[in-house]
Amino acid sequence: MLDLKQFEIWFVTGSQDLYGEETLRQVDEHSRIISQFFDQKAEIPVRVIFKPVVKSTDEIHRICQDANVAENCIGIVTWMHTFSPAKMWIRGLQILQKPLLHLHTQYNRDIPWADIDMDFMNLNQSAHGDREFGFIMTRMRLNRKVVVGHWQQNDVIGAIADWSRVAAARHDMKGAKFARFGDNMRQVAVTDGDKVAAEMAFGFSVNTYAVGDLVSVINQVSDEAVNLLTEEYENSYSLVASLHNGGEKHTALRDAARIELGMKHFLEEGGFKGYTNTFEDLYGMKQLPGIGSQRLMAAGYGYAGEGDWKTSAMVRALKVMGSGLPGGNSFMEDYTYHFNPTNNLVLGSHMLEICPSIAAGKPSCEIHALGIGGKEDPVRLVFNALAGPAINVSLIDMGNRFRILVNEVEAVTVEEALPKLPVARALWKPAPDMKTACAAWIYAGGAHHTVYSQNLTTEHMETFAEMMGVELVVIDQDTKLRQFKNELRWSEAYYK
Predict the structure, then answer these.
(1) For residue 1, what pLDDT is reported?
(2) Would you tell me the crossing angle of helices 223-236 and 250-270 to the nearest 10 degrees?
C-alpha cells in the first residue's frame, strides 16, 4: 500500500488589507482551525497544511511559486473568507502548476439570527467573496474543483478526500517512468500510441528495454532469495500439490519466483512505477511472468499486457488514488459475453495477469499450460473477483488528444465452478445495459484492455481528466446511444 501521508495540500485563504488588523486576525484564526480540522480527519489521506492568509498580489504570487516548487505539495485548497478582489489573483493563478480545489464554505454553519450585525457581515463574506474568485478562474479558463458546503459536513470532507487522492495520482504520474520489455503486440492498434504526446499530456515517460537485459537480472537472483519467496507463496496462497516442495512442478514455482524477483529488482533499480511486456517478445525467459506480474501489481506497480503502456500507466494511477481504501484495482480485459436474454453478463479476465487485490477470497496458486507464447507452463494465481460496484477505465490515443473512457458496472458473484478456466476472473453487468454499454464503448473507440476498479468512482476519473486537461467520456445508467453519439461528435468539434 502506498503511503499518501507523504503528500500535502496547502490551505490558502484569501482576503485583503481593507478590513483591518482585528478582522484579519480572525480570518487567520478561522483558517487555521479549518485546516487543522481537515488535517486530523482520517478520511483525507494526505496532510493538510495551513498557510497564512494572503492579502495582496505579491503574497498570492509568492504562495503559488512556493507551491510549485514544494516537492510534497500536490495541490492547494482556496477559500475566500472575506472579499478578495480577484485581479490580485491573476499573476499567481497564471503561474500555478498544481491542482486547485475551490472550497466554497463559511466558518459558521448557521446565521446567528439574534446577534448578527455589520461586524459579522464584514467578517463572513464568502457567499460573495468566493463568487468573485470563481469569476476570475472562469475568465482565465482554468480547470479546478469546486466543493460547496459547511467544512464540517461529511460530504465536504469526502469531496476533499477524493480530490486529494486524484491530486496524489497526478503528482505521482509527473516524471514517472514505465518500462516496455520488447515492443507492442504485432499489428495491434489500440495498445500502441504516441508516447511523446503522452509525456506532454500526463508527464510520464515510456521507453523500451531489451528482454535480454531483464533476463540477465533474473539469472542473477540468488537461490536463497528464491527459497524465501517460494515460502511466502506457500504461506500466502493455496498451492496445488504439484507446486509444493518435492512436487513434480516445484521447479516451475522456483522459476516463477526467480522471474518475479528479477523483475522487481529491475524496476526498483531503474526507478520505474510500472511496466508492460508481450508474450511475443520474451526471449530467454522460461515462462511468462504470471504470478510475478500479479504480485507486482498488488504491490502498487502499473502493469498491462501486450505492450499496452497506456493501460499500465493508468493501473498505477488508480493504484495511487485507491491506496488505503477497501477493494483493489487491476489490469483487466473484456474476454467473453453471456448473452442470456434475462441475465446479460461480461466475463473479464486475461491470460494470467489479474491483480489479487480484487480477489473475493484466498487465491489458489496453480500451474497450467497456456497454449500461447511457446513457453513452459506458467504459474499463476486463480480466484474470483469480489462482487459490488466497480468501474472499467480505458485510456485511448485519439490522435489529436487523449480520451479517458469510463463504464460503470456492477460485479456479481461467480456462481459457476469454471473448473477448466485456470485464470483469475471477474463477472459484471455493465450500465445501463449490455447492448447500450457495448455499443457505446465501441463507438467511443474504447480498448479491449481496461483498469478495473472496485474502490474508485466516475467522479475520481472526472477530476483526474480535468486535472490532466484531457477528454472524459462516461457510460452509466443515464446513457442513451443517440445522445452519446452526439456527445462524441460535439467533442470532435471542441477538440478540433
Answers:
(1) 66
(2) 110
Label residue 486 exposed, middle or buried (CB < 10 Å: 0-12, 13-18, 19+).
Answer: exposed
Cell numbers for 382, please give them: 486463480
The three-state secondary structure class of 281 is: coil
Length of the chain in terms of residues written: 496
Q: What are phi and psi of 125, to 5 degrees?
A: -120, 20
Q: Where are the alpha helices (DSSP H) in 151-243?
A: 154-173, 195-202, 211-219, 223-236
| Bridging pattern class, strands 345-349 and 425-430 | antiparallel
Whole-angstrom distance, CA of residue 174 vs CA of residue 158: 25
Helix (H, G, I), strand (E, B) or coil at 460: helix
Could you identify the residue written with the cell 467533442? 491
Confidence of residue 389 (pLDDT cuts 50, 70, 90): very high
H/E stretch holding 302: strand 302-305
Q: How many angstroms separate the Cα of 230 from the Cα of each of 20, 252, 425? A: 69, 11, 24
pLDDT for 417-441, tens place per residue? 899 999 999 999 999 999 999 999 9
E strands along 369-424, which residues? 379-382, 388-397, 402-411
Beta strands 388-397; 379-382: pairing state: unpaired
Burial class from Cβ neighbours inside 10 Å (0-12, 13-18, 19+) for residue 257 reads: buried
C-alpha span between 184 and 31 (Å, rounded): 51
Confidence band, pLDDT 50/70/90 cuts, at residue 243: very high
Element (H or E) spanning 430, and its range? strand 425-430
The pLDDT tens digits for 20-73 are: 889 999 999 999 999 999 999 999 999 999 999 999 999 999 999 999 999 999
Judge contact between 353 and 303, C-beta under 8 A. Answer: yes
